[in-house]
Write the C-alpha cells for this entry.
Amino acid sequence: MPTALAALEEAYARRGARTAASTRLSVSMDPSVSMGPAVSTSPAGDRTPVVGYVGADVPVELLTAAGVHAVRLTGDPDSGSVLGDRYLGRGVDPMARSVLTRLLAGSFGDLDRIVVSHDCEASLRLFYALRELRRVEPGTALPEAYLVDILHLPHRTTARYNRRRIGEFAARLEAWTGRPLDLAGAVAAHDERRRLLTAVAELRRAVPARLTGRQFLAVANAALPVDEHIALLERLLAEAGRLGEHPGRRVFLSGSDHDTPHVYETVESEGYVIVGEDHSFGDLFLGEPVGAGGLDALAEHYHHSGPTAHRATVGERAAHAARAVRHCRAELFVGYSRIGDEAPAWDFPAQRAALDIPAVLLERQEYGRADLAALRKEHPCAV
Amino acid sequence: MRSVKTLATAAEAGRHQREWFADLRRRVADGEPFALLNADVPHEIFRTMDIPYAVSQWWASLVAAKQRSGHYLDLVRQRGYPDYSEQYNSVTLGSAFDPEPEAGPWGGLPRPDIVVGDATGDVTRKVFDIWGHEPGVTFYPLESAAENEVPANWWELMPHRWEQAVGPARLDLLTAELENLVRFLETTTGRRFRESRFREVMALVNEQEEWNRKTRDLIARTRPAPLGVVDSIPSVMLPQWHRGTEWARDIARRFYEEVRDRVDAGHAACPGERARLMWIGRGLWYDMGFYQRFQDEYGAVFVWSMYLAIAADGYVRHGDDPMRALAARFAAFTDQLYTPPWSSEWYVKEARLHGIDGVVHLVSDDPRGSYFTARALEAAGFPVIEIHADNVDARTFDDEVVRRIGQWLENVVLA
C-alpha cells in the first residue's frame, strides 16, 4: 500500500488530465478514474454531474452540497496557449489563458457546467470569454458558464451583496440538479478538510520542514472528492513520523497563484524549501472554518477570505506577510509576479518594509517559470 | 506632427479648462477640500456638494500631452512600484510623489484630501489605496460588480429601463455605497447635500448628454465628415469633466450648433474624404496629431472615437429616484465599453451608424476583451487593424504603427 503522501501526490499529478472515458456514458468504474477531473459515476452507474470551477472565491461547499463532482480547473505552462491568447489577449494572466486553451481543447473531459469567481481580473475576463464564445461561436461546444460575483471591500454594503450572490448561486445549483442542497453536511466536510490541512501545514512549518512546498501543494490540491481527501489527510497525519526532513533555506513565496508545481520545483531545486505562501492554491485559504450558519456564514467566510494579491490592499498584504513569515519561520521572502498578473509587484515595497528578513522580487515572470538569477545573486543557497 | 483643432468650441473648452484649474488651485490654497476622482465614479455627488474635484484620467492625459508621463512613472518606480502597470492611473499617482509638484503641468496637481476610485481590475484599488497612505489623504473605494446575464441592447435600455439593463443586485450595491459616500463627505468636509440641488445636477447632465447625442447623430449621417476626433474629443470630454454645470450643458449645445453650421456650410474635415475611420480605445494623448496623419495622403479621417459616442449613449438616465439613477450610470459603465456582448454589439451599431470604412483598434495590456470587439466588427464587414500600445506611456508606442496603418489603408480599406 503506498503511503498517504504518495497517494496524494499521485492524485495531484492526475488533476487536470483528460480521463480515458471518451463519452459520457462509457465510463470506467475504476475508482482511480473518479479521482480524475471529468466524468464520474456512482456504483449504481448514475452519472454524477461534473462542474469545473475557476478561482479562489467559488464556494465549493455549495458544489459539494449539490452532489456534483467539483474540479478546480488549472492550466499547463508546457502545452501552449494559442487559443487562450487569441480570445483573452496577451495582457491577461497566462494562467487563465492556459485554462481557456485547455477547455477549448477538451483537456478536462466532459464538463456539465463551469463556475467562475471574480477573484481576480483574469478570472472575470475568462468568464466573459466563455459566455461570449457560447453566444457567437457555438461550435466551440463550451459548457454554460456561471459567475459567482463575490467581492471584498470590507464593508456591510459588500457583505449584503455577497449574501445575495451566494443565495442566487445556491438557487441555481438546485435548479441544475433538481434537488435541495445538503449544505450542513457539505460545510462540515470542507471544514474538516480545512482542519486537517491546517494540521498538515504545521508539518511543513516544522524545523526542519517535514514536507517540501512542492509536496504541500500536492497534498492541498489533490484532485479528490472531499471524503477521499479527508481519509488520505488523516492517514498522512498518522504517518507523519515517517516523513523526511527538509533542511533547506526556508522561503516564504508571495504573490501570483501557482496552479502547477513548476515554480515550486524550480525554487526548491536550488536548495530552498518553501515553507509558506500567500496564494489561493496554498495555505492562504486554509483559514477559519465556515461553521454553522448556512448561507449567511458561507457568504461571510468568502467575503473575508484572503488576503489575496488581487483583492487586498498593500497594507493588508504586508501585515499578513509579516505574520505568516514569523509563523513559518521563513528566512527569505520571495515576491513573485507573473507577466499579466501585476498586483503582487504593487504589494512588494510595503511587504519588504514590514519584514525583518531579506526579501527579493521576481517580477514579470513567465508562466510556470522562475528566473532565479536575482535570487542566486543576492541570496545564494548551497544545494 | 501636432494636431490642429479648428472648432471654436474645442478652443473655448480648452480655455475654460485652464481657467477652471487656476481657480481650483486658488480654492484649494484657500483651504477648501479637494477630491481626486477616477473617471468612472459618480462625480455628480461632488458637484452637488460643491466640493472641488479633478479627474485622474484627465490629469494623466494632460501629463501625457506634455510628454511628461515618463517623469511621473519614474517617480512611481523610485518608490519600488511597477512602472509598467496601469499607467493611466499610476501616472497620476506619480504626482503625489513629486518633490517639486508645482513644476507639473499648469502649476501642478494639488494634493487631494479625498481620492475615490472603483475596484476595477486587480490594481486600481491598490493604486488609489497607496495614495490614501499619503499624509492627509483619504481613499474611499467603490466596488466593481459583475453580472451573469445581461441584455445585449444596453444603449436602447439605459435612458429609461436601466434597471433591466444593469440588474437590481448591482444597483442596490452602488446605491447603498453612494448613500454612504454622501454621509462620509458631509462628515469630513462639512458640506451639505441638498436633494433639490442633486436633482438639478442630474437634469443638467441629462441635458448635456442629450446635446451630445444630437451631435453624434449629426456627424454620423453627414458625408463628408464635418469634423474629426481631434476636434470632437476636447469638445465633448472637457465639458464631460464639468457635467452637472450650466456651462457644460451650454457648451454641449454650442458644440452641436457649431457642427450643424459646418454641416449646413458643407465644411469637410478632410476635403476629398475617401475613408471614414473609427478609433477604438482610449485617446492617444501623447500624439493627438496621429489622428490627422492619414488625411492628406489617404483621404482617411477619424470620424469616431468612443468619447462622443459614449456621451451620447452611455450617460443619460431618467427616473424618479436620482440616487438610483446615478448608480445606474456607473454600476456597469466600463461594461459598456469593454465587456462583450455590450461592447462588441455597441461598436458594430456605431460603425454602421457612422458608415465606417475601417477600424483602428488600440489594444493595451489592460485586459479589455479586444478579440470580441474585432471579431464582431469583422463579422459585420468592417476591416480592423489592431495596434498595441499604452495610451499614456509613450515608451510603448512604435512609430512603425503609422507605416502599418498606411499599408492597411492602401491594401484593405481603399483597395
